Amino acid sequence: MDTKVNLAGVELKNPVMTASGTFGSGEEYSEFVDLSRLGAVVTKGVANVPWPGNPVPRIAETKSGMMNAIGLQNPGIDVFCRRDIPFLKQFDTKIIVNVCGKTTEDYCKVVERLADEDVDMLEINISCPNVKEGGIAFGQNPKAVEEITAEVKKRAKQPVIMKLSPNVTDITETAKAAEAGGADVLSLINTLTGMKIDIHRRAFSLANKTGGLSGPAIKPVAVRMVYQVANAVKLPVIGMGGIETAEDAIEFLLAGASAVSVGTANFYNPTATVQVAEGIEAYMERYGFEHVSGLTGLVK
Ligand SMILES: Cc1cc2nc3c(=O)[nH]c(=O)nc-3n(C[C@H](O)[C@H](O)[C@H](O)COP(=O)(O)O)c2cc1C
What we know:
Layout: E1 5-7, E2 10-12, E3 16-18, E4 40-42, E5 59-62, E6 65-68, H1 77-89, E7 94-99, H2 104-114, E8 121-125, H3 136-139, H4 142-155, E9 160-163, H5 171-181, E10 185-188, E11 192-195, E12 197-198, E13 203-204, E14 210-214, H6 219-230, E15 237-240, H7 246-255, E16 259-262, H8 265-268, H9 272-287
Parallel strand pairs: 3-16, 4-7, 7-8, 8-9, 9-10, 10-15, 15-16
Antiparallel strand pairs: 1-2, 5-6, 6-14, 11-14, 12-13
Bound molecules: flavin mononucleotide (FMN).
Flavin mononucleotide is lined by residues 19-22, 44-45, 68, 70, 72, 98, 125, 128, 163, 190-191, 214-215, 218, 240-243, 262-264.
């Protein structure tokens, strides 16, 4: 059975990866999960300098999901390169670094800094709903998406994944813009902007007022968007949004994804990623699929 997938020339042993921001750089999870079982580890977003993130509370539970407004807290690229890359290099998995910034220059500095590091791919987060500058401000405007993609591509030594926002009217417009800018792969979806009010305190549940909704609640929206994007561009698509089981992941593959990421599910089931990978193999065996790539886009 062949579970390998090829993303812009990078070969993953299977299509299962972690969703940025839900797995750190794998240290805490390595007690529960053999990281070498994963197709790739996608790290938490990293910026050119340390970011403190947003004030607390910045997490709230919702029905079949959660909201977060972490605000991309991260230790900055220097600490990341010194501490997290050597840790991940111990494992037989691909390393995908999620990059964030407030300006195009910020993103480019991180991309340039990573040029000589031993990482496999870059995922550019232009879709975070929880920061005032950068993030979603880029990701909602097709022209800005094309421009920042082109700037990043000029400097990147590794293949570039552009991570798209679902907080748009027509996600195929930003997908096509990223393709026009030279993106190698697209990933989607980031979180959906939401709001929760604590009626007993008569206050917002999150200090940031709004937060990004993730988890099983968003899966049908994510599957729909993956289907739309996969049919609108020629690039490989990494699908995510509410995946907790292999069945969920297979829906994304059939809708057109070449690979999948598991996010929020890691918080309540730290072994979810490996279970998804094993479940995909069981499905392939049950239905006689030789190659996992044979599932991609099978439902038209
Ligand atoms: C606590 C938290 C932190 C996140 N941080 C990042 C981040 O740093 N960069 C990014 O691109 N996406 C980030 N995301 C979005 C996830 O990678 C993913 O796109 C989204 O949560 C949908 O997948 P899920 O429903 O499986 O969690 C974060 C999500 C959560 C819940």
